Structure formats: structure tokens, C-alpha cells
């Protein structure tokens, strides 16, 4: 029995009928019967509590709540034909898709049934004023084995295609990832017609070695080497006629495919056999709609494309293959026309060669200035080029061996996560015992080839400023970076080294607002962002090996007033560990 406003509510579990009845004392604010899928007993309490909270939010006029219960376990999977230990969510690999709408509140109760501590991060979700939910080791204590923790995050003022994955201990190499889509609200126009259906496509390189074996390689100072294959939604077609379709299409209809590279290392090129892709969204931004026969999707990046079933009715391949690697690895999946007859052609479209092609493709991506994203105002109403830059931070990546062990660094510092998360140390006022701010200068040192410092790497950045971050890549491999808590304007990528005069080559009008940046070999890239989101935010290499061995840092942006206007209070049930475990909680913001 529960009460919502002045409405009396009774929720009854009818296990034999697999449904819940809601009986109202008076009024009618929800349907009287809600059908649900069969669930385990563990989930029933959460569903019932969730329904009460949903009713409460309806009475109060809050944004809707979506509730999820995840049981995270190990299981045997064989995506490349070799049995190996994978990480499953509710028995699934990949994990379940999160289907949400702008401003929804997501409540995700995670039961960790692994034998190791666990965290999940939500790649591309900005967590406005709420880095408490970011799910990386610098902000959160991990969920201990045999326990559970509930993430509460809001997809505030965002639309687009994203994904989640485990951020701890190289767990991503075993799975645990899934799609996260944020649909536009009905009152916001979308710059294309509604598709017939909406599909999530998760592509990744894949290792047949377990994540624990790969982690031992890195801990011993070795590289994890090259992957053994590529997967599309956890599979690759055998091509012997036994493959079931990944997706189906009705002739003449148009479909939306949300494509994300959730892999460990490799950029991947994706193409649809015999079909063009119309790019409509890139990492949360509507873009100018161009047609492509193939797209390079770098690690951590996501695209949304429209594909029309306008070819002969039969089966076709969707193909993903590695880029910038000595040996090209390829995965295939079946797309089937509903009235189709005939196997796909064995002639697989080839991927382009070289990184110059990829750089040129990047230059075709443009912000759709007239389209509305999560808010009614057009994207182009934000004139980023007219804002004065208040600080320039230049980051140069490097690789070295320290005492015979492989390390990656930014500006000569290779990051390590302390036992006490950086955010908690800062919040409890003991940061001086855990780390030092600004251990790297805004300009990289001249002697980057010298020994690197292995320590927490934290930059202090002033709230509500407009800053420029330059990435320079002196190495022979492509670099891909992601910044939590933010989207930024990727205004330029060019060969050579950056100088202030290079600002003349920036895109001043329609650079895409996004959350990943690629830096090609011997090139630089420039991003612009407004530091308006208080929190401790991770800037990391999306190459798993590089990140694990230090190529990351944290950006601390603090509220000058310590006000709820700028940042939410630490949740009452926030996990505590390290030096803050037994400390009294600081007074809440007001």
C-alpha cells in the first residue's frame, strides 16, 4: 500500500499472471493494469518501489523515471568460436539496451556477482552537476563482490547514441557493455522522418584471452598485443548459410542504425553491402546529412545513420573491419529483407586504406545549425567562435618504459588511481593527503623523453571559463580521447605541430559538438569547451591499454560558493573507501 499525493495506491503482485495491478483510491492518474515481463523475485521489490516513485513523479510533475535491475555475472561465451569467460548482464552478452528520452531519470540497481570489484561508466552521458554517478575510479568506490549499488543519473538536455561499459580492471575486454540511446522528446522536431525501426549496432575488436590474462600482461609491463577478431553485437557471421539475421528490413522502408565502437584498441570501418548510409547524428549532435558508403568509427565514438531497403530483396552483409592495422580483421552480420530470397554476395566491400582518408572524412562532418537537439532552440544559436579563450592546455602523449615496464603518459605524468577516489578526497577536504593539483604544466615539458612521473594526474580548472585543449600526437598510432561530463567543439585536426597561428584554420561556424576526439599520427587536434559542469571529470585515452597504464588525467572543476546551484550533494548511499571510509560526512550544500 502506498500514498501518492492525495491518491491512495495499492500494488499487488500477481505472479501467476505476470502482471501488476494498481488500484487507486480516487482519481485516475495511471492505467489500472500494467503488463510486465516475468522477472525474478530479486527484481519484484524494485519494480514495485519504482512504480510508486513513478506515480510520485507524475503528481509532482518531475521528469519520468526508468528502473533497471542488473545481475552481473560471469558466463561462458564463444564469439570467435573459442570458449572463454565473459561478463554477462542478466545473462546477456552484450548487455541490455537502455532506451531513454531526454531528461529521463535512470535508476540502475547493479548486483555484482563477479569475484572482483566493479564500476560502470556511461560513455557520453554528461551527468550535469552530478559526477557522483560517473562510475570511474577517480570519482567512485567500486561495488564489492556480492553486493549491490544503485546508480541514479539523469540524461539532462541530451539526445543521441551512447553506450555503457565496466570501467574497472580491464573488464571491458570480457563484455559488460551495451547501448544507451536518448530519444528526442515529442515536442522537439527531429530533422528526418521517423524510421521504421531503430537498431543498435555495437562493433568492437575482440581478444580470446581473458581479461585477467590481459591484465596480467599489462601489470607485468607487457602490451596486450593485437586482437584476434572483430564482433558485431557480440557475433560474426560464419557465411555457411547457418547464420541468423542480426537485423531485418521491409522493402522500401528506412531504418535507423546506432553504431558505436565499444572496442579496446582499433578504429573500425563499417559499411552496408550495396546500401548507402545517411549520417544524421554524431555523439549527441544532429549533423549535416551526407551519404557515405563507409564510415570510420574510432574507439568510443558513435554514429546514427539511416539506411533504406531499396535494393533487390535478399540477404546482405553489414561489415566491420579494423583500420590502421597490419593485419585486417573483419566481422560480418546478416541483414535480411523480410520477403528476401537468396544469400548475400560473397563480394565484401573493402575498407579504405590509410589515415589520410579518415582525416578527410572527419572534415565532412558538420553541425546541423538549424536543427534542435534536446532543447527547442537551434544548435547553431550557440556561437562558440565568438567566445574569448581564457586558458590553453596543450597535452602531448608519450610512451616509455619505467624500470622495464611499459607506461603511457600525458605531459610526462603517467596517472595512477589512488585507493581513495579523487572526488571523495576533494569533497572530504583531504585532497592534500591523496594528490597534488596541476602536476603537469599547461605546456608540455621539453624533455618528454625523460623518465615519467607515476602519480595521480589532476588539473584544477576554474568554473565557468572557456578553454582550449590541444592534443599533439608524436607517435605512429592513432589516439582517441574522451572527456566525461562534457561535450566540446572539435574545431580542427591537422598534420604537424600546433602553434597559436593554427587557430586561423579552426572551423569557426559548424564544428560538431561531441565527446570524443581523434588525433592521427604526427597530427594535432583542438577542442573548445565551456567549463560549466562542476565535478571531477576523467579525460582518458580510449585505447584500453594506454588508459590502464596511465594515459589519462582528471579535471577538477569546483563550485566557488559550494552551492546546490552548481553541484548536487553526495548521495546518502554513496560508497566510501580508502581514507574517507570512517570520516564524518561534510555538511551538505544549501
UniProtKB/TrEMBL annotation:
Provide this UniProt record's keywords sorted from A to Z.
Glycoprotein
Q: Specify whether Coiled coil is a keyword of the entry.
A: no
Pfam family membership, one: Cu-oxidase_3
UniProt domain Plastocyanin-like: residue ranges: 72-185, 197-339, 420-560
Q: Which InterPro entries match?
A: Cu-oxidase-like_N (IPR011707), Cu-oxidase_2nd (IPR001117), Cu-oxidase_C (IPR011706), Cu-oxidase_fam (IPR045087), Cupredoxin (IPR008972), CuRO_1_AAO-like (IPR034273), CuRO_2_AO-like (IPR034271)
At the top level, the lineage of the source is: Eukaryota
For whether the record's keyword set contains Glycoprotein, the answer is yes
Recall the GO molecular function terms of this protein's record. Answer: copper ion binding; oxidoreductase activity
Q: Which PANTHER family match?
A: MULTI-COPPER OXIDASE (PTHR11709), OS01G0816700 PROTEIN (PTHR11709:SF27)
Family classification: Belongs to the multicopper oxidase family.
| Record's protein name | L-ascorbate oxidase-like protein
| Native source species | Phaseolus coccineus
